[in-house]
UniProtKB/TrEMBL annotation:
<dbReference type="InterPro" id="IPR035394">
    <property type="entry name" value="Glyco_hydro_59_dom"/>
</dbReference>
<dbReference type="InterPro" id="IPR049161">
    <property type="entry name" value="GH59_cat"/>
</dbReference>
<dbReference type="Pfam" id="PF17387">
    <property type="entry name" value="Glyco_hydro_59M"/>
</dbReference>
<keyword id="KW-0325">Glycoprotein</keyword>
<dbReference type="GO" id="GO:0016020">
    <property type="term" value="C:membrane"/>
</dbReference>
<keyword id="KW-0746">Sphingolipid metabolism</keyword>
<keyword id="KW-0443">Lipid metabolism</keyword>
<dbReference type="GO" id="GO:0006683">
    <property type="term" value="P:galactosylceramide catabolic process"/>
</dbReference>
<keyword id="KW-1015">Disulfide bond</keyword>
<keyword id="KW-0442">Lipid degradation</keyword>
<keyword id="KW-0326">Glycosidase</keyword>
<keyword id="KW-0458">Lysosome</keyword>
<dbReference type="InterPro" id="IPR017853">
    <property type="entry name" value="GH"/>
</dbReference>
<dbReference type="Pfam" id="PF02057">
    <property type="entry name" value="Glyco_hydro_59"/>
</dbReference>
<protein>
    <recommendedName>
        <fullName>Galactocerebrosidase</fullName>
        <ecNumber>3.2.1.46</ecNumber>
    </recommendedName>
</protein>
<dbReference type="InterPro" id="IPR013785">
    <property type="entry name" value="Aldolase_TIM"/>
</dbReference>
<feature type="domain" description="Glycosyl hydrolase family 59 central">
    <location>
        <begin position="345"/>
        <end position="459"/>
    </location>
</feature>
Amino acid sequence: AALLWGTILLACSCSPGPPRVGAAPLLAATYVLDDANGLGREFDGIGAVSGGGATSRLLVNYQEPYRSQILDYLFKPNFGASLHILKVEIGGDAQSTDGTEPSHMHYENDENYFRGYEWWLMKEAKKRNPKIKLIGLPWAFPGWIGKGENWPYDYPDITAYYIVSWILGAKQYHDLDIDYIGIWNERAFSSKYIKLLRYTLDKHGLEQVRIIASDRLWEPISFVMMIDSELHGVVDVIGAHYPGTKTVKNAILTGKKLWSSEDYSTFNNDVGAGCWARILNQNYVNGNMTSTIAWNLVASYYEELPFGRCGLMTAQEPWSGHYKVESPIWITAHTTQFTQPGWSYLQVDGHLEGGGSFVALTDGLGNLTIIIETMSHNHSKCIRPPLPNFSVIPQRATFYLGGSFYMVETLQVWHSRLDFESGNSSLFQQLHPVEVWKGRFSLDLDVDEVYTLTTLTSGRKCACPEPPPPQPFPSNYKDDFNIRNPPFSEAPNFADQTGVFEYFVNASDPGDHVFTLRQVVVQRPITWVSDADQTISVIGNFKWVNMTVTCDIYIEKPRDGGVFIAGRVDNGGIYVRRTKGVFFWVFADGTYRVTGDLAGQEILMKGLAGVRDNAWHTLTLNIQGNSASGLLNGYLLWENVTISKPRNGWAALGTRSFELAQFDNFHVE
């Protein structure tokens, strides 16, 4: 009788997918979901990173209602990505992938908890989801912490004080409770420092803040924790980056929570969505990881910087209001809208016979969520690590629900199909519920699909009105920086690539230059990558060829100080040291230079300008075709400099070294 019933059930099994006409018999397999023998690991949530670095730079400059719409798609429960975790960079005044983020302590005697945009972003996330978990992690540190050395662990008490100050400032000035704190992104850890950090946290009443280590690889942190019981006692989560869904034996033996604390980092088209779908399941199925965090949250930086559009969605045009809800947002929703941190995974193998994977989670109160993915190899490659070959075929999966799930009668169904033939993907669509008969149901699974089956009825696919169409950066752009109470410390659309450029009030100025933009980093930071030896902030349209850049400049450093304006700037981010362009420099010693690179090695012209420090001057750089010329205070200073390359690039401004300098009345046309 049981066999007969099985045959009848298979014959009329629920298949929400498209009917397969004249197809060969499907591979069929059965899977049991049962909580009678206990549950698997506790689920800690799905999240994303803002920072590492400056990945949300352009988001803050969006006008309403578009900015709020973007934030809703990221954080609002049962709306879009509905993220459980937001991880932010603790700014360190240094280049951390796509720009620099400002520190709350530029100098030893300086504290300011209103710089940058991460405070604002955390508050916006909490406003939408009060339960969202917050993580802080440094990529770099201000130079004073190392007392001249490019290393944060020589004076661990100073580093711990600096990090704890950030956590205390989050609470004092923004009423934000930081849940987790990291050590040093993808760099060495110091056991002594981690122990001292725990001690400093506890001393300041921050016992509830958990420590993640080491945001790099599974080893050596796991091994060191096995032999150092004190370190084992203070690390709460082992966080690895880009683990390729695998873990190591030592990590499991520690008994600690295992997270993929940075992952994805892949161009956000449908292949990126396939990558994200595969690792969201398989990080647990293959690697016991109970949280996966995407770098990055939203691609809000100039696309030609490194890792352009490697965010869950794209918002890189604040001047037009255009943004794009990319497919990874809806892949995220398959998990986040039907689970919560604190739920538990069921103990299942999780591998599908025909390729692909499934996970099942419960809140322990009778609710059940099953997430299935059948991503094929070529349609789910992440940027790293390399993906070994595997195959996925259409298949029929039959699930038996046991234990407390035996009485479940219907499951809601949400479905995505990534269509690489026609490009007509179907994303996060609600299908007819599945009827469960005597604890059993079947599904026909095609390749490159995601299914969520759940007892929860709260899922929603929300859509804001269409955003405005895309527009290039304005071809005529001015900023006089005249703003008394700016909402953010940085001027719109300037993307700092070395150094930090902030609004400044020049109280001693007689009137023309009270409000300026000032470069404020005066010591090389403890870097994460190779920052330039000069400071630079870029702006505009990377495709620009012919342009005129004008700016008032004020050198503050006597004798060897200097500043520049530039055009056709071709690089930034982690590659900032190799930046080429047309750079017009003036120096406090009265000389000028024109160079083809930021490093100042490729000298195209030089001479006397008569510029001095602590006085305002106006520089104008004109680039037309293969020729450039420069004006000082409205008078021609140099001309007929031949430019062979780069052919195009951003406008920029900056300084000769880590030095104070001011800029005003910026204009590019």
